[in-house]
Write a structure and sequence with these properties.
This protein is mainly α and 98 residues long. The protein has three helices and two strands; from the N terminus they run αββαα. The structure holds zinc ion.
Length: 98
């Protein structure tokens, strides 16, 4: 590959990286909302696995993380999830009292 092609490939890679970083906050928000809604609705949000903190089995509902005795910030995560859902519902003009 000659220098011009390498430079062009580097520019394309850099452009993709910049676009990915610009979209990161939106993607993080979408992921957070997906998890919060899944937890609230009781639908599968992950694959079955073992908790990395305590080793307990975690089912597809992923609710173990909300009550893990080894996890830090359990109550703040619960409150945060409720707040995220409440704000999402209010922004969609759906009355919410969580
Ligand atoms: Zn655990």
């Amino acid at each position: 590959m000659d220098q011009r092609k390498r430079t062009e490939k580097t520019k394309i890679t850099l452009r993709k990286t910049i676009i990915a970083k610009k979209n990161a906050p939106q993607e993080a928000w979408q992921k957070t909302l997906r998890i919060a809604a899944g937890l609230r609705l009781g639908v599968g949000i992950c694959e079955s696995n073992n908790c990395v903190s305590c080793g307990a089995p975690v089912d597809r509902l992923g609710q173990h993380g909300l009550s893990c005795s080894s996890g830090a910030g359990r109550l703040s995560r619960h409150a945060t999830l409720n707040d995220i859902l409440r704000r999402a519902l209010v922004s969609a003009n759906v009355p919410a009292a969580l």
